[in-house]
Write a structure and sequence with these properties.
It is built from 8 helices and 10 strands. By secondary structure, the protein is of the alpha+beta class. Helix 2 packs antiparallel against helix 3 and helix 5 packs antiparallel against helix 6. The N terminus is likely disordered.
């Protein structure tokens, strides 16, 4: 699940102000059972009722035996949210794109500039996804973190990276610890990549908030990691090789989106 997620450079203060506004909006949403939250999110992403029911049921059936283990820290709802999010269905792409739309205001010559404004239309579009997002973020922060890098992902946002540039993740971003597998996606006709527009750009990430999906991913990829919305990276160096462009990035200050600003009990 190496998703296309806009990860722009821009005004950090405006980005954090925008994130704070959205966090307040998310705080007003109550935790509800996964079946209800996921059904609303899948339908809002364009899925029909039959497909939604099948996917949600599959996630809950997947989660039940894992949640029953005495050592398991995640609830059945939380495990099911991770499994559903990583299924090859529209939910993943639609949700991440909507989150980006809520944060990115306009393109400017220097990159993307953030604003703290969220229009009523943007918030109305993302609202059906918020109960599911709360459960998903609750699950994400219970996952173990990978303390060593590098981690890898493709840069698919269309403009060249330069040293000292700040990159701000505006949505849930995925990465992998398997660079060879990532390289294969750039030549696979089934996997979207920017390679048709030029050589691919690979990001080598040093990070401290890379959460390990492990056994919860529907893709079965044990090397897959997730970053929460709000992660910030600085470009250290950029070089070109026969296989493409390689950019080394280091994670800096992160004001990531949380399921709630204050601790709350998720629906079990």
């Amino acid at each position: 699940m190496l998703n296309r997620i806009r990860a722009p450079c821009g005004n950090k203060q405006a980005h954090f102000a925008s994130l704070d506004v959205f966090q307040t909006f998310l705080d007003s949403v109550l935790f509800v059972p996964l079946a209800r939250a996921a059904t609303a999110a899948c339908i809002a992403s364009g899925m029909d009722e039959a497909s939604t029911d099948a996917c949600v049921r599959a996630s809950l059936e997947f989660a039940a035996p894992l949640a029953a283990k005495p050592s398991e820290k995640l609830t059945e709802n939380e495990i099911a949210s991770l499994h559903l999010f990583t299924q090859p269905i529209p939910l993943h792409g639609v949700l991440t794109n909507l989150l980006t739309t809520c944060f990115v205001a306009q393109d400017a010559a220097a990159g993307v500039v953030f604003s703290g404004d969220h229009t009523a239309n943007e918030l109305a579009r993302v609202k059906p996804f918020l109960p599911f997002l709360k459960i998903l973020l609750s699950a994400l922060y219970k996952l173990p973190t990978a303390s060593r890098g590098p981690f890898f992902r493709l840069w698919v946002d269309g403009w060249p990276l330069t040293p000292n540039q700040v990159v701000l993740w505006t949505s849930i971003a995925s990465a992998t610890r398997d660079f060879a597998a990532l390289q294969k996606t750039t030549s696979s006709p089934q996997s979207p990549s920017p390679s048709a527009q030029g050589p691919p750009t690979f990001l080598f990430l040093q990070a401290h908030t890379a959460y390990i999906l492990g056994p919860y991913s529907a893709s079965g990829d044990a090397t897959e990691l997730l970053f929460p919305p709000g992660c910030q990276f600085t470009v250290l160096s950029v070089s070109t090789s026969a296989g493409g462009v390689v950019a080394h990035l280091s994670q800096g200050l992160t004001m990531a989106l949380k399921p709630s600003r204050t601790p709350a009990a998720a629906a079990s």
